[in-house]
Every structure is written in structure tokens, then in C-alpha cells.
Amino acid sequence: MAMNTDQLSPELFQPAEREQGAEEAVSRKRLSYWQDVRRRFVSNKGAMIGLLLIVIIGVMSLVGPLMNDFTYSDQNTDMMNISPFEKIEGDYWLGTDHLGRDLWTRIWYGAGISLLIAIIAASLDLVVGVTYGAISGYMGGKVDDWMQRLVEVLVGVPQLVVIILLLIWLEPGIFAIALALALTGWVNMSRIVRAQMLKLKSQEYVLAARTLGANTRRMLTKHMIPNVMGPVIITLMFTIPNAIFFEAFLGFIGLGLRPPQASLGVLLNDGYQMLQLYPYQCLLPATVLSLLMFSFNLLGDGLRDALDPKLRQ
Amino acid sequence: MGRFVLKRLIYMVITLWLIATITFFLMHNLPGSPLQNEEKLPPELKEIILKEYGLDKPLPVQYVNYLGNLITGDLGNSYKYDGRKVTDMIMDGFSASATLGVQAISFGVVVGLILGCVAALRRGTWIDSGATVLSVLGVSIPSFVLGALLSYYVGVELQWLPPALWEGWEYTILPSLALSFLVIAQIARYVRTEMLEVLGQDYIKTAKAKGLGRPAVIIRHALRNALIPAITIMAPLTVALLTGTLVIEQIFAIPGMGYMFVDSIQTNDFTAIMGVTMFYSFLLVVSIFIVDILYGIIDPRIRLTGAKE
Amino acid sequence: MSVTKQKVEKILEVNHVKKHFKMGRNQVVKAVDNISFDVYKGETLGLVGESGCGKSTIGRTIIRLYDTTDGEIRFKGESTRNLKGKDLKKFNREMQMIFQDPYASLNPRMTVADIIAEGLDIHGLAQGEERRQKVTELLKTVGLNEEHADRFPHEFSGGQRQRIGIARALAVDPEFIIADEPISALDVSIQAQVVNLMKKLQREKGLTYLFIAHDLSMVKYISDRIGVMYLGNLVELADSQELYDHPLHPYTEALLSAVPIPDPDVEKERERIILKGDVPSPINPPSGCRFRTRCPKVMDICAKETPKWQEVKPMHWVACHLYQEESLKKEEGNKNK
């Protein structure tokens, strides 16, 4: 706005009124830490796709087998090896296997079992791993030294080999497989937890809590554990597909669940025998398996990005 | 550095001892195991068998003998295939498995490296997205699924390559390919991440400012530094590979160690199971040890202080 | 404020304190090696030195984040070594700390209100409505708004976070505050804000500060007395003005010569003392006087004997052979041989 110099008066040059506290105003909408995380997560397309797929498969594993009249173990010798593309009466939407069992039911049921095993294994893994790692990291000193020595030895033990040995000994069953998986896998989680604990122990806000006089319970519950959850959740997201993979593998080499039980591994094994003649029997469970693992990986990556954008991979 | 090597060596030995002990006790407690002493056989025959397998001695003595034999490399006799030494059986299979493994690693590392670099350099283009998708797929689709698919579609349907057996050089292509997929995926992903980080660093800008041509910059500076952390994933990768060979050998009917292992499980050949377990563990522990040493050589912090960060 | 010994009481006494850290097998980092000084009630004692000289370590040792390896610390006349239970709680309320990194000193998962009120919660000083009021009051004291209480640390700037940290320390009504490089991570204009706030609070609440920093000019602004540290030792301690006008220790002289003076004429005439060499490692400090490897006035005796910490003028301590009569005599003696 152009003004003539005679229009300029001294009053115009008085300091403008500053709104009290205006310079301290925080402009962003108030967001808690977790809300911020969720916002980042939701905007990650890959992660959302992964989550969606997992939910779909999860729901189908519960609902799918109920959608037609067959159970996962019903055999029908008249209806063996029917491909999904054949027009035939009855609800054999995905065909049947070599014993006449409906594949639609078996596949969804099997997916559910695989997920169940994976979740049990991951939970056990979580409990043991987090406890061990937290104690080791928090206590520090000699306790930590000795606990870590055990970890060093266990790390060299090949997971697969021990799982196989354990299963030869234990007799495969849902819980046995989950147990074997957890017993060999907890070491990874404990390492992550311990690393995080060590990092937190020297963070200044933890020191501040100490100078304020916080007791151990408060330190752990308010300061340490909430800040450990991030990496723990991420690790969990990768432990699950790992468990699914191992279970499938075990099924594939004959150490999986006994018939007529179904899991993705068992289905793969059954289907593999028929690969040349009836490829769909193997391809269908393979697709579901791959989708599951793919989704968990996407989910895990998405969570990692959402929880700490600085770790962006 | 010396202290570091010594420490890892000791851990290696302890780990192997632990596995040997677990294996020993598991095998001795399995129902139906010949080592269990419950065979319903005429006593004289039983005597002979027991003597042959050294089972007539008390348990602790058996254990010590077992350990002693292990150290000398004697893995005992196969239970199912009379007279065959387990060690021989393993050695027969080893060449096949080793070929498979080495091919998979070499191919995988080279392709993975190239893919990762290209993806990093051409960030955001379809090459990058393609590489990323490939990586995720490689990590998600289990190698045995891939192997089965390759064997069936490329081997049987298209008949471009033999789908199974191990009778010549062409037979190694499909299985190695299937196995290498995981390697490619992991390495490409890792190299891409590291390259991206390195390329953003100041010293790269300095090199460019100095007038260094692009290829020289990439090779001399970026690649070297991006490679170093990649060694860290060689350890878990080796593990995954060993796992993978077990299955691939099944699918492609390759007479390797993995095949033997599965076979011995299915035929309840206990001495063989124990033997292969020990051998696999030994291989794994040694590879991890080598990778640790390599890493120690490269990371000066370890060399100088003997401690791992 | 210049201090005379008799009239004002000592609130903190540090006597021959050592703090050593074990690193690996045979290596010990002597972060703090025999330091003695007193802090008087109501004053601000500044502690300066390069990175790694041990100033943060001594701060944390005083507040008992670390235990002393040797030596004694007395707070308000009582030894702090074996405080437990109620006494420890009392100690936690009377002595507080402000930390250096505004981005790491606040728990990202907690609201500002919870962060500030943590001291109140731990000691059961206020609940419910009273707690909320106290938090509001504290926020206003440090120049923030009431509505900030429900927000999270990541929504604030560095300067604001430091102020939240100050509010947290003030919540328990401490008498003594150790400020461990509270402004080093802030922009210069914000530094002034925070330091002025601290001065204001000191006046209003009668606080005593131990102000640890590496920026000499800022330290002079806020401190009544200044101590200079080098590689785990105190080398000089005096009133601020006295230190500036009459530095005794060669290290102090070098530090002062590096502080720019906002007067171009004076600057033109000044000569910077540039120390040769690098700071030696605290694992293997030089024998005798630790500064001798870089001292422009080094003598032979400096390598053989550690200089004593002596009050060579009223309220002006220094540890240097240049001011020790016997050392000078010995040096003379050696020269004449």
C-alpha cells in the first residue's frame, strides 16, 4: 500500500501489540504419540494392504469352513481329485484332494491352524524373550554378563535342526510345534529388548526420573516398557510369518500335523504329491501361504516406518 | 583381535557341545530307538547288536565315547543301512549340497548386489519399485513353493530345463535358482537401503565436487561403504540357505545331505539323524564364525578393542 | 555477588572426589580425579571445561546418578554417600537437575502435565485439582501457557522443552539445582531466554545453581564464581570477575583468549593463545600436571609432581606449579645443576 511520507505519523511506529502468549502457541492439532503413529501407519498403502489381507484371511479361516456343509476331514471316495474348474454338483468351490476332502474347507481351516500355531508360538516367544531381555538389560552388570553368555551360546544353535529334533521327540501337535518354535526363537526377541533397554537406561528422561526419586516399579512401567513396545511389536510382526514358514516347512517334510489335521504345511505336502496331475491342490494353499507371509512383511515394514520414521528402510 | 577370535572359538565349541549333548539325550530317550534297549529279540542277537553299537556300556561311558568319536569325526554306523558309516553317507551327499549352496550364494549375491545398486541409483523409477516388489516376494514366497513351481512349470510344462535329479550341469540350474531367490531378495533390499544412505552422505558430494566421474564415485566410494554392513546379513542368510537346501533337495530329488536327512527321519535311522544334525550344526556354527571374523577384520573397532559393538 | 566465607553457609561440599569408570579389561577412565570445591547457598557456581573434562560426570555424581569411587560429598552438612529411604527422598526433593538435550530429556510418551508433575506424584505432594493447579502455575512460571499441559513433547521447540524441563525440576521446590549444559543445544537467542529465566527464578526462589557449560561468556553472565576443569581436575576457581581480570592458570588464560570481545579495537590488539597438541585421553592422562603436554609455560617439575590445589589469593584457588613456592625453588635448583 503506497503512502505519502506526510501520511506517516509517529504513532504508526509504536511497537505492535503482541498477544500475550501468542509466541508460545502450538499450532498443530493435539496428537498423542500413539495417535501420531497410527496416522503415519494408515497413510502407508502397503501396510494397509497387508493389514487388510491378514484380516480377510483371518476372518475366512473362521468363517470359510462353515460356509459349506463339508468338514475338513470328510472323505468322499466318489469325489476325489476334482478340480475347481469342473462343473459338478455340490459346493466344491475349490475342488477336492486325493481323498475326496473339500479343499475350500480344508484350506481355510488349515490357514486358521497355521495362524493359530504362529500366534501361540509368537506369544510364548514374546513372554520369554521380553522377560529375559528386560531383566538382562535393566539389571546390567554381572547379571547381564552371564545372561548374555547363555544367549551367545544359544545363538549358534541352528533353529531348524533343534525344531526337528524336538518334534521327533515330542510328537507333532499344534502345541508341540508352537512350543518348539518358541523355544528356539525367543533369543532373537530377548536381544532386541535388551538392546532397547540399554539404550533407554542412559536416556536423559530416564535419568531425570531417577533424580526425581522414582522407584523401580515406576521406572519400568512408566518409562522403560512403553518405550520398548515399539521394537517388540515390530519384531513380533516378523516372528509370525517366520513361524508360519517353519510350520509349513515341517509339514512339507513330514514332521507336521498328522492326518486328517490340516495346516498349510500339511496341505502343501499333500498337494505336492499330486503336483503333476492336479497342480491346483498345491497351488491354492501355496497362494494363501505366500499371501499371508507377504502381508505380515508389509505390515511389519509399515509398523516400523510408523513407529520411527528415522528408521526408514 | 586375537582375544576376539578366541572368544568366538570358545563359544563355538560350547555351542557344538550343547547340541551334541541335546542330540544324544534326545535320541536315547526316544521310544523305538535302537538305543533304547527294548527290542524284542532273542538274547544272543540282542547281545551282538548291543555290542556293535556300544550300547552294553553304562550311559555316561557311552556319552563320553560319543563325544570322543565326534571329535575324531566318527559319526557311527547307520542303523538302517547296515555297515554304512554315517560319515561316508554325509560326504556322499555333501558335494551335491555344497554345489547347490555355492551356486545359489554366488548367483544370489551378484544379482542382488546389482539389483540393489540399480534400484538405489534409479530411485523412484519403475526399476526401483520392481526391485522392491521382487524383494518382498522373495522374502514371502517360501523357497520350496518357488522350487515346486519352477520345477513344474519350467521343467515339466515348458521343458526348458530338467525338473529333477542330478545328472549333469543343467540339472543344477533350477534348484540353484530357486534357492538363490531368497538371497537376491535379502541382499538387494539391504544393498539398496545402504546405498541410498551412503549416496546421501556428504563425502559423496565432496567426491562429485572434486570432479570424480559418476561411475568412479559409485564404485570407489559408495559401493565399498555400502558393502560393509551387508556382511552382517551373511550370517542369517547362511542359516536360511541351509534350511532351504533341505527342501529344495526334496523337490528336485537331489541326493544331497538334506535329502539324506529327511530320508533318515522318515526311516527312523537314528544314528544318521544324529550324525547329520551334528554335521549341519557344525557347518552352521563354522560359517557364522567365519562371518564374525570377517566382520571383525573389516570393523576396526573390533580389531582394536576386542569387543563387539 | 561476591562471597565471604564467614557470613554465608555452604550448601554443598565436594571433598577429594574421584569417579573412575572401568572400560573393558584393564582400562580405567579417570573421569573425575580428585576434585574439591564448595558451593555457597544462594550463589551460582559455574563449571567450565572442554568436552570430556569430567564436568558432566561430577554433576551426575553429586546428584547421585553415579556413586563416587572415592572422596566425600556433603549436602547441607550431611554426607550423601549412604542415603536411603526417607533421607534419600528428601535429598531428591532438595536437589534437582536440568539436562542438556531437550530432545532426550522428556519422555515422548507422557503429556507435559505428567512430565512436570512426576516429582509431585512420586513424593505425593499434590493430587487431583491441586496437582493441576500446580502444573499450571509452573507452566506460567517458565513462560508457557496453561493449554500446553495436555500436549506431548514432540510438539514443542527446543527452547520450550528446556523450559518444561526446568518446570519439572522446580515442581518439588528444590534448593539446589545442577544445570548440566542446559543451553548448549539451543540457538543463541533462545539461550538468552532460558538463562534469563533461570536468573529470574534464582532471585525469586533463592535457588543455588551449579551451572555446567563450555561457553565461557555465557557462564560469566550467570555465574558468581567460576571453576575451570581440565581432564578430570579442577585447575582454577575464583569469582567471575577476578577470573576474567586475573587468570592464573595457563589453561584459563588460553580459554579466555579465545572468547571474542565485542569491541573491534580491543580484539585487534588481543593475541590468541593457541594450545599445541590435542587433549590427551582420560584413560592414560599425563603424569604430574595433566595440562603439561600443552602448556606454554611448562617446567620440568610439571612432569614429576602433581600441583597442589591451593588458595593463593583470598577465594582464588589454582593448581599450578607456577604458584607453588617449593616447586619454583626446585625448578631453580634444577636449572643451576
UniProtKB/TrEMBL annotation, chain A:
Its cellular-component GO annotations read: plasma membrane
Question: Where would you find this protein in the cell?
Answer: Cell membrane
The residue ranges crossing the membrane are: 47-67, 107-138, 150-168, 174-193, 228-257, 277-300
Entry keyword set? Cell membrane, Membrane, Peptide transport, Protein transport, Transmembrane, Transmembrane helix, Transport
Q: Which domain of life is it from?
A: Bacteria
Question: In the UniProt record, does the keyword Cell membrane occur?
Answer: yes
PROSITE patterns assigned: ABC_TM1
* GO terms for biological process, alphabetical: peptide transport; protein transport; transmembrane transport
Its primary localisation, in coarse terms, equals membrane
Q: Where is the ABC transmembrane type-1 domain?
A: 111-300
How is this protein situated with respect to the membrane?
Answer: Multi-pass membrane protein
Q: Note the InterPro entries from the entry.
A: BP-dependent_transpt_permease, MetI-like, MetI-like_sf, OppC_N
Region annotated Disordered sits at 1-21
One Pfam family from the record: OppC_N
Family to which this protein belongs: Belongs to the binding-protein-dependent transport system permease family. OppBC subfamily.
The UniProt entry, under PANTHER family, shows:
OLIGOPEPTIDE TRANSPORT SYSTEM PERMEASE PROTEIN AMID (PTHR43386:SF24), OLIGOPEPTIDE TRANSPORT SYSTEM PERMEASE PROTEIN APPC (PTHR43386)
- How is this protein named in the record? Oligopeptide transport system permease protein
What are the top taxonomic ranks of the organism?
Bacteria, Bacillati, Bacillota, Bacilli, Bacillales
Automatic annotation (TrEMBL), chain B:
Q: Which CDD domains match?
A: TM_PBP2 (cd06261)
Chief localisation class: membrane
Q: Which PROSITE patterns match?
A: ABC_TM1
Name the residues that span the membrane: 9-27, 100-121, 133-153, 173-191, 227-252, 272-298
Keyword annotations of the record: Cell membrane, Membrane, Transmembrane, Transmembrane helix, Transport
Cytoplasm among the record's keywords? no
User: GO cellular-component terms in the record?
Assistant: plasma membrane
- Bilayer disposition of the protein: Multi-pass membrane protein
Coiled coil location: none
Q: Pfam families under this entry?
A: BPD_transp_1, BPD_transp_1_N
Q: Which residues form the ABC transmembrane type-1 domain?
A: 94-295
**Localized where?**
Cell membrane
Transport is among the record's keywords: yes
Q: Which GO terms describe its biological process?
A: transmembrane transport
Q: Which family does it belong to?
A: Belongs to the binding-protein-dependent transport system permease family.
Q: Indicate what this protein is called per its UniProt record.
A: Oligopeptide transport system permease protein
What is the scientific name of the source organism? Melghirimyces algeriensis
From TrEMBL, chain C:
Superkingdom of origin organism: Bacteria
The UniProt keywords, alphabetically, are: ATP-binding, Nucleotide-binding, Transport
Molecular function via GO = ATP binding; ATP hydrolysis activity
Q: Which SUPFAM superfamilies match?
A: P-loop containing nucleoside triphosphate hydrolases
Query: What InterPro entries has UniProt attached to this entry?
Result: AAA+_ATPase (IPR003593), ABC_transp_ATP-bind (IPR050319), ABC_transporter-like_ATP-bd (IPR003439), ABC_transporter-like_CS (IPR017871), Oligopep_ABC_C (IPR013563), P-loop_NTPase (IPR027417)
Q: Which Pfam families match?
A: ABC_tran, oligo_HPY
One annotated GO biological process: transmembrane transport
Domain ABC transporter, chain residue ranges per copy = 12-256
Which PROSITE patterns does the UniProt entry name for this protein? ABC_TRANSPORTER_1, ABC_TRANSPORTER_2
Family statement drawn from the similarity comment of this UniProt entry? Belongs to the ABC transporter superfamily.
Q: Which PANTHER family match?
A: D,D-DIPEPTIDE TRANSPORT ATP-BINDING PROTEIN DDPF-RELATED (PTHR43776:SF7), TRANSPORT ATP-BINDING PROTEIN (PTHR43776)
Q: What name does UniProt use for this protein?
A: Oligopeptide transport system ATP-binding protein
Q: What phylogenetic lineage does the species belong to? A: Bacteria, Bacillati, Bacillota, Bacilli, Bacillales
